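Box 3.1 A note on notation
Throughout this textbook, protein chains are presented in two layers. The first layer is the amino acid sequence; the second is a C-alpha coordinate string describing backbone geometry. Keep the layers aligned when reading.
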Amino acid sequence: MKKIFLAFLLSSFFIACDKEAGEGGTSSIEGQVWELFTYQDPFTGSWDTTFYRLDSGKDVYIIYSDDEGEIYDDKFETDYNGRYRFEFLRKGDYTLYVYADSTDINMVNYDYPIFKHITIDENNSIVLVEDFIIEKNQ
Protein backbone atom coordinates (compact mmCIF):
# COMPACT_ATOMS: atom_id res chain seq x y z
CA MET A 1 0.00 0.00 0.00
CA LYS A 2 2.86 2.35 0.79
CA LYS A 3 4.39 1.72 -2.64
CA ILE A 4 1.12 2.54 -4.38
CA PHE A 5 0.73 5.75 -2.36
CA LEU A 6 4.35 6.74 -3.08
CA ALA A 7 3.91 6.06 -6.81
CA PHE A 8 0.71 8.13 -6.84
CA LEU A 9 2.41 10.97 -4.97
CA LEU A 10 5.39 11.03 -7.34
CA SER A 11 3.24 10.89 -10.47
CA SER A 12 1.04 13.71 -9.13
CA PHE A 13 4.14 15.80 -8.45
CA PHE A 14 5.44 15.44 -12.01
CA ILE A 15 2.04 16.04 -13.61
CA ALA A 16 1.37 19.16 -11.52
CA CYS A 17 4.69 20.82 -12.36
CA ASP A 18 4.58 23.58 -14.96
CA LYS A 19 7.56 23.39 -17.25
CA GLU A 20 9.51 26.54 -17.91
CA ALA A 21 10.38 27.97 -21.30
CA GLY A 22 12.95 25.99 -23.22
CA GLU A 23 13.45 22.89 -25.32
CA GLY A 24 11.13 19.91 -25.27
CA GLY A 25 7.97 21.45 -26.69
CA THR A 26 6.15 21.51 -30.01
CA SER A 27 6.35 25.18 -31.00
CA SER A 28 8.86 27.22 -32.97
CA ILE A 29 10.05 30.80 -33.45
CA GLU A 30 11.19 32.05 -36.84
CA GLY A 31 12.08 35.25 -38.67
CA GLN A 32 14.61 37.02 -40.91
CA VAL A 33 17.60 39.33 -40.56
CA TRP A 34 18.13 42.22 -42.99
CA GLU A 35 20.99 44.67 -43.42
CA LEU A 36 20.17 48.28 -44.22
CA PHE A 37 23.10 49.81 -46.07
CA THR A 38 23.64 53.55 -46.23
CA TYR A 39 26.56 54.69 -48.31
CA GLN A 40 27.98 57.98 -49.37
CA ASP A 41 27.27 59.01 -52.95
CA PRO A 42 30.71 59.67 -54.49
CA PHE A 43 29.34 62.47 -56.69
CA THR A 44 27.32 64.45 -54.14
CA GLY A 45 28.95 63.38 -50.87
CA SER A 46 25.55 62.78 -49.29
CA TRP A 47 24.65 59.72 -47.20
CA ASP A 48 21.11 59.37 -48.52
CA THR A 49 21.42 56.27 -50.72
CA THR A 50 20.07 53.17 -48.94
CA PHE A 51 19.21 49.59 -49.82
CA TYR A 52 18.30 46.37 -47.99
CA ARG A 53 20.05 43.02 -48.24
CA LEU A 54 19.27 39.72 -46.55
CA ASP A 55 21.97 38.96 -43.99
CA SER A 56 23.14 35.38 -44.46
CA GLY A 57 25.48 33.77 -41.96
CA LYS A 58 24.41 36.03 -39.07
CA ASP A 59 24.10 34.44 -35.61
CA VAL A 60 20.72 34.82 -33.90
CA TYR A 61 20.77 34.03 -30.16
CA ILE A 62 17.90 32.85 -27.94
CA ILE A 63 17.50 33.15 -24.17
CA TYR A 64 14.88 30.92 -22.52
CA SER A 65 13.46 33.82 -20.46
CA ASP A 66 12.65 37.51 -20.84
CA ASP A 67 15.83 38.55 -18.99
CA GLU A 68 18.26 40.26 -21.40
CA GLY A 69 21.05 39.84 -18.85
CA GLU A 70 21.07 36.02 -19.02
CA ILE A 71 23.60 34.02 -21.04
CA TYR A 72 22.16 32.71 -24.30
CA ASP A 73 20.83 29.16 -24.39
CA ASP A 74 21.15 28.46 -28.12
CA LYS A 75 22.02 30.15 -31.40
CA PHE A 76 21.15 29.72 -35.07
CA GLU A 77 23.11 30.90 -38.10
CA THR A 78 20.87 32.46 -40.74
CA ASP A 79 20.56 30.73 -44.12
CA TYR A 80 21.19 32.32 -47.54
CA ASN A 81 17.84 34.16 -47.25
CA GLY A 82 18.60 35.58 -43.79
CA ARG A 83 16.11 33.18 -42.16
CA TYR A 84 16.39 31.53 -38.76
CA ARG A 85 14.21 29.05 -36.88
CA PHE A 86 14.25 27.76 -33.31
CA GLU A 87 12.22 24.56 -32.96
CA PHE A 88 10.85 22.26 -30.26
CA LEU A 89 10.13 25.04 -27.76
CA ARG A 90 7.67 24.99 -24.85
CA LYS A 91 5.22 27.71 -23.91
CA GLY A 92 6.87 30.66 -22.18
CA ASP A 93 8.85 33.87 -22.60
CA TYR A 94 11.92 34.11 -24.82
CA THR A 95 14.43 36.77 -25.79
CA LEU A 96 16.09 36.83 -29.21
CA TYR A 97 18.99 39.02 -30.18
CA VAL A 98 21.51 39.68 -32.93
CA TYR A 99 24.63 41.81 -32.87
CA ALA A 100 24.71 44.94 -35.00
CA ASP A 101 28.14 45.97 -36.23
CA SER A 102 28.90 49.63 -35.86
CA THR A 103 31.77 52.09 -36.08
CA ASP A 104 32.22 55.03 -33.74
CA ILE A 105 33.76 58.42 -34.50
CA ASN A 106 37.29 57.20 -33.77
CA MET A 107 36.85 54.34 -36.27
CA VAL A 108 36.81 51.74 -33.50
CA ASN A 109 34.50 48.84 -34.32
CA TYR A 110 32.14 47.57 -31.65
CA ASP A 111 29.09 45.32 -31.61
CA TYR A 112 25.86 45.92 -29.72
CA PRO A 113 22.82 43.66 -29.35
CA ILE A 114 19.35 44.26 -30.78
CA PHE A 115 16.73 42.48 -28.62
CA LYS A 116 13.23 41.17 -29.35
CA HIS A 117 10.95 39.65 -26.70
CA ILE A 118 8.63 36.81 -27.71
CA THR A 119 5.97 34.82 -25.86
CA ILE A 120 4.75 31.40 -26.94
CA ASP A 121 1.18 31.03 -25.67
CA GLU A 122 0.14 27.75 -27.30
CA ASN A 123 1.60 24.37 -28.10
CA ASN A 124 2.04 23.41 -31.77
CA SER A 125 2.40 27.05 -32.82
CA ILE A 126 4.80 28.99 -35.04
CA VAL A 127 5.62 32.50 -33.80
CA LEU A 128 6.73 34.82 -36.60
CA VAL A 129 9.07 37.52 -35.31
CA GLU A 130 9.26 40.99 -36.80
CA ASP A 131 12.41 41.27 -38.95
CA PHE A 132 15.71 42.28 -37.40
CA ILE A 133 17.11 45.23 -39.38
CA ILE A 134 20.79 45.95 -38.91
CA GLU A 135 21.99 49.33 -40.11
CA LYS A 136 25.40 49.53 -41.80
CA ASN A 137 27.34 52.48 -43.19
CA GLN A 138 29.63 52.00 -46.17
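Strands lie at 23-39, 49-54, 59-63, 74-77, 83-89, 92-103, 109-120, 126-128, 132-137. The chain has one domain: 20-137.
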